[in-house]
Amino acid sequence: MLILILLLSAFTHLWNPVGFPDLFSDEGVYVRRAIEVLAGLGPQESSRYYDHPFFGQLFLASIFKVIGYPDSLHTSQTHSIEMLYLVPRLLMGFLAVIDTFLIYLISKYHYNKKVALIACILFSVMPISWFTRRILLEPIQLTFFLSSTLFAVYTRTEAYKRRTFNENQIKQITDSNKNNDNKIKYSNKITLVLLSGIFLGLSIFTKIPMFVTIPFVGYLIFTNTNRSWKTLGFWFVPVILIPLIWPAYSVAVGHYNDWQRTVIGQMHREGLPLLQRISQLIVIEPVLLFIGIAGLVLSGLKKDLFILLWTIPILLFIFLIDWLWAPYHVFIPLIPPFCILAALFIVKITDLISDRNIQRFLLWTVISAICIFGLVSTTILISRNVTSTQFQTIRFVSQYLGNESNIDHAYDITLVSNPVYSWIFKYIFHKDYVLNEPNIFEYQDVNTSKILLISDAQSESVSQNSERLRELYNNSNLLIKFNGPIDSFDIDKYPYTSMDANFDGLYGIEVRIAKIN
User: Fold this and answer.
1) How far is Cα 388 from Cα 385, in angstroms, rounded to an integer?
2) Residues 203 and 268 grouped into a single domain
3) Angle at which helices 113-125 and 2-14 pack, to 10 degrees?
4) Are residues 263 and 124 in the same domain?
5) Which strand (E) or helix (H) includes residue 455?
6) First-to-last CA distance in the chain?
7) 324 and 399: one domain?
8) Strand 413-416 and strand 509-515: pairing?
9) For the chain: N or C, fewer Cβ within 10 A?
């Protein structure tokens, strides 16, 4: 059954990765930074971009290096542009399948196999799991965090003993052998503790907010090792030292003031407020959220510290820090614990029935109904193509800049665009004048006679705060407009309510040209 669930997870996370979801601006940012690492430009993009630690781009760059991406792709072929996003999105899908297995193991060893199976079924089929399909830091971070949690769970003496000895073997060992075995067992446990600390350190080094899970994993380490402060100290070393690489690097290269300024700026960003985002999440994933909240209340009544310490600090961080700006991906770390909470609630409710046959029938009837509902909803979403307009835009611009009639002018054009496009023209097509992001146009001088503007939902959003970008749009001429698929479905009806988080690809995209006086 676990194999079937993993295959199901592979389908929901790997099917049509290029078509759904749309190409999100941050995806272009993180792929660009990984490409720059491969180009030998260092782990940190510049002093302006200390928005997140640089382990994310190091991780992506290492995978890209192993598989030969993007050099192995031939960008002159028809479908090669899609391949530029297919490869890293497949990587995100594989991480999600690994997450499914990790959720199973964590739930199995802390609770039981029944809870584990239900939790990973929910993670596999519920529509909110599509959040992990994009090339973002949170899906990378989540895999490292779940690995840290699993190693922490493995340190539990009883679980370790069950996996190492059976009753007959324990009776047969001599006193001297017992001492040797205890030494080996202690050594193995310290290894698990250090691995847990290393993976949590890497998770925080990917994106800082995961530091709120330190009390949760630390609690597991402390209670599972007979409340040993010494062992907890071993665990803390990599948890603290690994993320400190980031500020230490800024000091080494003389960017500490930039690091401090950018980190503080990240904490005070404004955009879509939390309450509006929560209302959006409810229409995207009503079933898992409501059952998960019910499970959280029940776990609170049962004083289940394992799931409470996992969930509550993340929720508090979101409510306290992300109140004014809560992008949907900050909720990705909450998906696994909410799947476990929902599984716990379903199991606890069905356990109230005394008749075992009715209990078993009702349990799997409920799970089957939720599974079918989730799978159908997710399949409808992931089968949609919401990126066609974006790839049409890339093809048109590449042909326009490479057209023989424009060859004399191609080197005299500055491209202003969403990051999902800019890295392709800068590092794949090797165009000289490409701004990484549209907001850079606000303060950077342009030394070419023309500007090519890709105007989409993201750049229009930036232009609301950029007078210079609005002026560029008003003084430019339209070359072509590609209409998005917004009219092909009703975003107010479930499951298309998820499309509200795919606005970059849903609406029309204009390619415009402007001459500089």
Assistant:
1) 6
2) yes
3) 20
4) yes
5) strand 450-455
6) 67
7) no
8) unpaired
9) C
- SS3 state of residue 415: strand
Encoded tokens for 454: 């890709």
Type of residue at 348: K
- Pair (400, 343) in one structural domain: no
Task: Write the DSSP symbol of residue 425.
Answer: I
Chain center to CA of 260: 24
Could you give the number of structural domains in the chain? Answer: 2
Sign of CA dihedral 29, 31, 36, 40: positive
139 near 56, Cβ under 8 Å?
no
- What residue has token string 């009219």? 487
Tokens of 426: 């800068």
Q: Which pLDDT tens digits describe the chain residue by residue (517 residues)?
A: 899 999 999 999 999 999 999 999 999 999 999 999 999 999 988 877 888 999 999 999 999 999 999 887 765 554 578 999 999 999 999 999 999 999 999 999 999 999 999 999 999 999 999 999 999 999 999 999 999 999 999 987 544 444 444 444 444 444 444 454 455 455 678 899 999 999 999 999 999 999 999 999 999 999 998 888 999 999 999 999 999 999 999 999 998 888 888 887 777 666 677 888 888 889 899 999 999 999 999 999 999 999 999 999 999 998 887 777 778 889 999 999 999 999 999 999 998 888 888 888 999 899 999 999 999 999 999 999 999 999 999 999 998 888 645 555 556 899 999 999 999 999 998 888 999 988 888 888 888 889 999 998 877 777 677 788 888 899 999 999 999 888 888 888 999 998 888 888 888 899 999 988 6
Cα–Cα distances (Å) from 57 to 42, 63, 98, 140, 218, in that order, read: 10, 10, 20, 10, 27
For the record, the structure tokens of 31 come out as 């792929």
Q: Which residues on adjacent β-strands are paired with residue 450?
A: 413, 515
Q: What is the distance between the alpha carbons of residues 98 and 93, in angstroms, rounded to a whole number?
A: 9
Determine the structural domain holding residue 280 and report its residue range: 2-382
pTM for the full predicted model: 0.91
Cα–Cα distance between 275 and 273 in angstroms, integer?
Answer: 6
Cis status, amide bond into 495, omega within 30 of 0: yes
Tokens of 291: 């059952």
Among 362, 382, 402, the domain-final residue is 382
Closest residue by Cα to residue 70 from 79, 83, 59 = 83
